[in-house]
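CATEGORY: protein folding

GOAL: derive structure tokens
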Amino acid sequence: YYEVFPSNNLELGLWLESERMLHPVINQKGVDTQNEVVKEEKRLRVDNSPYGKFIENIKKNLFQNHPYKETVIGKMADLDAATLDEFIAFKKKFYSPNNAVLVIAGDFEKDNAKKLISDYFKDIPKGAEITRNFPKEDPITTEINAKAYDSNIQIPASMIAYRTPGLRNRDSQVLEMISTYLSDGPSSKLYKKMVDDEKQALQIGAIPVTLEDYGMYIIFALPVGETGLNTLNNSIEEEVEKLRTDLISENDYQKLQNKFENQFVNSNSSVEGIANSLAEYYMLYGDTSLINKEIEVYRSITREEIPEVAQKYLKPNQRLVLEYLPEQNTAN
């Protein structure tokens, strides 16, 4: 939750957030209303959106034990079955001061802000300690092959996905650089090869999904004309294999460094960006000083680390190959 206020309205913002934590109105009418909002969001973004279920299908194949195997937005049946008592219990468990971080960024007087925070939040009771101990996944040692069908598409897609480490692992930052190298923009290796030069793909991209316990590295491609999905997969593997065995050029390495430095500066160039970064660094990493030094992590990544990390996580026997196909209408 966030608000943007004129600096003379700091107290109003703190009052709003303390009220949300201490006195939220959770009743059957509100639950019914918000359930319908979430259902409509699911219809719009997932059920009726072209390629809207590809993440769902990747997750259920990459994860067998960890809750990441489930979707975030949930299932219609679960939304229908949710009770008022469950909503109240969820709020009580998670919406407590010891499970939250409050960030104020902007033009304010520090001592006054601290007093206001104390005035509005000191009487909110601490909640029970929350234990997060999720099941671990066994390593993937054999290629997984799967199919999924989508009634909203006409062009099939190939999805190749690898299970990767969580966000606190340095390798996750190296994988972000690999993703940028392979598919960020028209000059990236996969785009130039498969879209421009060989004209195999209408579109190609790579998505590093970095989460707390594990991550996912996903490469997707849509074929041109009669190009087969296996052809796309072979072309993708050729480029990934080069990453596993060869050093990228010094010029490409410097381009990556420039891109990540630019992203870091831009993300903290506004007051809202600074506030968001501080909250994320505290909540996920326990270290707000990363706002000044995270860029040093990327600067310290060497050319030699890139093939090491690619060899560690991006081998063919560690991947899921998902054929994402148009659902055929079987009605007579």
